[in-house]
Write a structure and sequence with these properties.
GO terms for molecular function: hydrolase activity; isomerase activity; metal ion binding. The chain is of the alpha+beta class. The protein is about 15% helix and about 35% strand.
Length: about 290
């Protein structure tokens, strides 16, 4: 199942595609139930089934004719993992970590498929990072690796666009990762049952203006998804709707000589098997 959040004429809606069929959906004000995906996730499997049943009986939705929003607008936590591919660790000058490198994004940075990533006036070092994200469906604390994948609701794509000079101003990276309109998330959410277990073996590619700049595979993750869930839940309670962004492979602009920064007028596209393509133009902020 694929779930998309969309906007048309100032109204937000949700759409669902079941078993490879076209998207059908409803505006949120027409659902007549707790019709937000976040609310449904918090309500558990029965609430999800009720929501998807209502959406599947809705109107046809052509995703090419509406504005797509991030699948979740206000997750409680957006947890990002750095240096999670050996080749990216090497190009960044780091030894592969023995423990996940964790930092946070805030929902104020989120944009959807088709929205513009904004390069701020204060920096020209805007870099791309194509990543796969997963969304927690069933919360928990101290989750074992063997049970971890039961807690994953679905997967999506993420561009962890980073302002590199701000990222390196402090020993931790949060400030360079949270400029407004730099966290592209989408185009939709794909439930875990439509992908290989643990999203194994997915090709992950980033293109800038049509040129391939990153070409990775989730088999090369240092810390796979069950490991990330186990390690994170040993520290904090994971809640329904929390988003974990799993890391980027080699090829980032900062590691190139000369560096390859995204500039206004560019278009960045991130693709992965089964997850579609997340496409965003680059503009100057302000």
């Amino acid at each position: 199942m694929k779930i998309a959040r969309f906007s048309e004429h100032g109204r937000d809606g949700l759409a669902v595609a079941l078993d490879g069929m076209d998207f059908k959906g409803l505006f949120l004000d027409k659902l007549g139930i707790a019709g937000d995906l976040q609310t449904a996730l918090e309500g558990g499997p029965n609430a999800i089934r009720k929501l998807t049943r209502a959406l599947s009986l809705g109107e046809d939705v052509d995703l090419a004719q509406v504005s797509l929003r991030p699948p979740l607008l206000s997750p409680e936590k957006i947890i990002c993992i750095g240096l999670n591919y050996v080749d990216h660790s090497a190009e960044s000058g780091f030894v592969p970590p023995a423990y996940p490198t964790v930092f946070s994004r805030f929902n104020s940075s989120l944009i959807g498929h088709g929205d513009a990533i904004e390069r701020p006036q204060t920096s020209e070092q805007l870099d791309y990072e194509g990543e796969i994200a997963f969304v927690i469906g069933i919360g928990g604390r101290n989750i074992s690796k063997s049970a971890a994948l039961k807690h994953v609701f679905g997967y999506s794509l993420f561009n962890d666009a980073s302002l590199r000079d701000y990222q390196t101003r402090t020993p931790q990276w949060t400030i360079g990762k949270n400029f407004d309109k730099t966290g592209a998330f989408g185009p939709y959410l794909v439930t875990a049952d439509e992908l290989p277990e643990g999203a194994k073996g997915l090709s992950l590619q980033t293109r800038l203006n049509g040129n391939l700049v990153q070409d990775g595979n989730t088999d090369d993750l240092i810390f796979d998804i069950p490991t990330l869930i186990a390690e994170l839940s040993a520290v904090m309670t994971l809640r329904p709707g929390d988003v974990v962004v799993t890391g980027t492979p080699a090829g980032v602009g900062a590691a190139r000589k000369p560096p390859l920064w995204m500039v206004p007028g560019d278009v960045c596209e991130i693709s992965a098997g089964g997850l579609g393509t997340l496409r965003n133009p680059i503009v100057a902020a302000g």
